[in-house]
Amino acid sequence: MTDGMRGLRWALGLVAAGVLTAPAVAVAEASFDRGNKIFRLDGGDVTYAFKINGSGILQSVYWGKRLPDRAPLAAPELSGLSGFDVITNVVPQEYAGQGGGLYAEPALKVTYPDGNRDVVLYYRTQEVSGDTIRVTLSDLDRPLFVTLTYTIDRATGVIARSAVIENRGATDVRIDQAAAAGYTLPVAYDYRLHYSTGRWAAEWTLQDRALTAGSTVLESRRGSTGSQNNPWFTITRATTTEEDGPAWIGALAWSGSWRLTFDQDVTGRIRIVGGYNPFDFAYRLRPGATLSTPTFYVGFSDHGRGGASRIFHRFERERILPRRDGRVPLRKVLYNSWEATEFDVNEAGQIALAERAATLGVERFVMDDGWFGARNNDRAGLGDWIVNPAKFPRGLAPLISRVKSLGMDFGLWVEPEMINEDSDLFRAHPDWAMQFKSRPRTQGRNQLVLNLARTDVRDYVLKVLDDLLTTNDIAFLKWDYNRNWSEPGWPDADIADQQTIYVAYVRNLYWIIDELRKRHPRVEIESCSGGGGRVDLGIMARTDQMWPSDNTDPLDRLSIQDGFTQAYAPGTMMAWVTDSPNWVNQRQTLLSFRFLSAMQGGLGIGTNLNKWQNTDFLVARRYVAAYKRIRETVQRGDLYRINRANEADQRWTNLYVSGDRRQAALFTLIGSTHKLDVMPTIALRGLDPDAHYRIESMDGAALPLTMPASASGAYWMNHGVDVTLVGDFQGVGFILTRTR
Length: 740
Ligand code: DGJ
Description:
It is a single chain. With 740 residues, this protein is α+β, with helices and mostly antiparallel strands. The strands form 6 sheets. Strands 6, 7, 8, 9, 11, 12, 14, 15, 19 and 20 form a 10-stranded antiparallel beta sheet that branches. The termini are far apart. Bound molecules: (2R,3S,4R,5S)-2-(hydroxymethyl)piperidine-3,4,5-triol (DGJ). The site of (2R,3S,4R,5S)-2-(hydroxymethyl)piperidine-3,4,5-triol has 11 residues, from loops.
């Protein structure tokens, strides 16, 4: 019996046993495609298929809406277009080696010591187990093997793909480029690519461009994820809307330099290749060694960009985020000291803030930068993770115990991957900073990056963090990272291995966090990189929440949050209420407006509470209480983006509906009213049409006269809600509760 027949019998066996109505993973043989083996994965509303073509090459067949179980999945046997475009460029390969005349983007490019740079990968074996298919390919004559792993999530249809490259030969091989996967979309000429661009304090700007002939490259060359682009994309057709039409979504789980390329090939197909960024990349693979790529996740929805986002959000909650006691914990309402005190932290000052924060219903008090070493400004101290004795003469214990007696847990800011030249650590180990020998080191925010690829550095970082968590009652770490790489040298490594720093650094970072979580399983971690510079599915698998941006202006935040939640779950996105005017743009806003903006993620408060009036405390208490009522819906529910602001219409309207459809939270905020325009009715989504829902304002204010206090889901979704907002920076929030 062949492997394929065994797989088929396995899948059919489950169906016969009534375990599945349709196989979650099916390996179907020959019959549909002239003797060529087809592999098919089904999950959620998605089918994915590829085949071994007549030449033994793995060819993409289908990725889209779920097909009937025995649908004919034939894909044409292709031939070259002309002498200029030989067959290698016409066949959409699942994982293309740079060889055989390939001009399209390769997944794998290698150099042998004898000068050979030609790799053509052929199917060798397969293995099916659970929801996973593994296919091994190898070069036509060199002992270079690539094992591709495909896993489909039964609930969402999200596919995880990665590759392991193995050198079974007797000589070294240099890998110049290694992708996780290649994906293909069928021939069409109206694709649109949606992605995000940004920079510090201006992350998550959404872009939308035609994906026509030519290449588009999204990448980070920065050593970490970066905010210039985020390793996420959605592709739609021109006719796709927010809630209707096809949308293909994808994201890389990698927190180092990465690249995604999008090409319309010579036949009109879109080819997507993603993985390690080949920029400055070289990885020596010794005999017997392997290189694993990051995972490249993709999903599909025919409910537009909204549907694609919701699929990813659900997948992250169910498959990516760390769990505790079997669930992803809800985000606590936190207070953070940064915007109030910056580096000027001390025991009395932090206790005073904690006492005020506790009266608001805050559940976690986080002391930010400034508590360690000689850290009085950003020019010194990074690397010396010892409590500053002048600021905390009795250590952190008195502050932590006061915070705990106030009913909150305690969180602490760290930036463990960095070093200031003005630090005891640098004075002791100047060679620990990333650098090229005898070359200047470029500073960013007066700091250098530690070379985490070194095991001694890795072990030091783990030890200081482990000690900190062992000796103090710390529930949460805000893990910051405030610059990108420069001079990425690793002088102590063998020259042929120095560029592996791009892989080794990130692996060691992951190892440290994983080890810390193992040793301190109740500690939660936030991924922060001066804002949203390290948000990706790799870091999300080991941290609980993300900081999307240092820009805390509540209006700017609405577009930042809109960009973030295209791919990442609102429950991972921290949002703070801070002071007005905001430091970013001097914009003045009402406290209620700031709350309504921040309540759409994990709520935090970052104001200087010492300056607040009694009325501010009253308003804040009311909104914190409202937030606690809706947070499960915001953090674990379905997000419907009802209106995205544009020049003519400056409304941001978002609706969150709980998984059981018992509650919904509606937010509508405006930058400014436009002339005397009447605001359009808001038609809700996702409710149970036959159920009844009571509506109330989040701040307890009376409802508009024309709004019924209770109505059916059908009414709220068809008739909708009329809201009038007049002036600048106004907003309102409603809670809908199912009554019957
Ligand atoms: C950058 C972070 O994004 C801020 O929230 C704050 O923690 C500062 N670093 C502290 O240096």
